Amino acid sequence: MALENDTQAPDFELPNQFGEPVRLSDFRGKKAVALVFFPLAFSGTCTGELCELRDNLAIFQDASVELIGVSVDSKWALRAWAEAQDYGFPLLADFWPHGAVAKDYGVFLDERGFANRATFVIDEGGVIRASFISAPGEARPLAAYRDALDKLATRRALSA
Fold first, then answer.
1. What residues act catalytically?
2. How many helices (H) and strands (E) does the chain have?
3. Containing H/E element for 148?
4. Which residue in 9, 112, 137, 153 has the fewest CB atoms around it within 10 Å?
């Protein structure tokens, strides 16, 4: 079962598409994160989803939210895909142990060997403030991201 909103997001360290380590806790106290799990690089639905995010990267930048993709692909596959699609955000390799971070977030599909399409918006304190998951084979709509970012902005305004 996927982690619920208003719970602490599990910390992790994974290599990005360049082999550089990225830790979720490095953003704590600095910037919110939209953690976007996707099944596999180079697949049609995933390419469509991430290209839509690439084309709308400004909504995350305007909200001071770091967009980060995560899949079970290797860092080499993710780098080739990111370069081919000109993604301007990090892609993290949850390659080994296979899908460990997706499992920690409750979105790994054992029978398929990869993560479900799941998004977690994590605030500066490391708490999941919004999340959504689509059915297998179904792309997440951009409106769901906008709604999640709006919820985060409302929460920030209330606590200011």
1. 46
2. 5, 9
3. helix 142-159
4. 137
Query: DSSP 3-state assignment of 145?
Result: helix
Place of tokens 């692909």: 73
Residue pLDDT, tens place only, 68-127: 999 999 999 999 999 999 999 999 999 999 999 999 999 999 999 999 999 999 999 999
DSSP for 31-92, written as a single string: -EEEEEE-S-TT-HHHHHHHHHHHHTHHHHHHTTEEEEEEESS-HHHHHHHHHHHT--S-EE
Which is higher by pLDDT, 135 or 92?
92
Beta carbons within 8 Å of 138's beta carbon, 6+ residues apart: 45, 117
Q: Is the pTM of this model over 0.70?
A: yes
Lookup result for tokens 């892609």: 91
Give the 3-state secondary structure of residue 101. helix
Q: By C-alpha distance, which of 38, 40, 98 is closest to 68?
A: 38
